[in-house]
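Write out this protein's structure.
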Amino acid sequence: RNGGLVGLHPLSELALSYYTPVIGNSGIYQMRYFQSVEGLGEVIWKNYRFKRTDCFVVYTNTGVTKVALDIAGFAKTEGMRVIAVTSLQHAAATGTDHKGGKRLHEIADLVIDNCSVVGDAMVDIPGSEDKAGAGSSITSIAITNALSTEAALELARRGHSPMVLPSPYFEGTPEGKARRARAEKRWDECMAEYSRRYAGMFIRGDR
């Protein structure tokens, strides 16, 4: 989106990231099942050709989601850096059944604590044992934007010009139309660079 940095590529497996219908096809039960299947990460990994200079940011609030642990483990095995975004409070309250025997923060090179509480939900509901309000939803978005922004700043500090998507949503006046035209041109440049970087990403083979 606007302000986004070219160079970040999400691994958004549909079965793990889309469960909007809640029930029925692509429901939340299916998502929960898939994320708990050890070995699914290996199947996903086979689709890509990563470089040892790639850096993985792996998210799991609990620290024990099987697919996240699979991916983090493969990245480490192939010599890549892994950043964990996880709740250290929740991780401390649970063990792991993953064959690797480690939680995400025990695998990663760098750990960012999303500061969510055990169980994630933060707000007490009067008269109920349940809580509402997942803290990780807020902090994970903030952490993601902070990482992207800091990467852009670090590139600038090193003398590179970061490619960042500007807002094209200006219209109705000559100044607005000119601003939109500049933004659209920049979008085309950014998308061309994005395509160039990932042209060979989906072909497995020797590095």
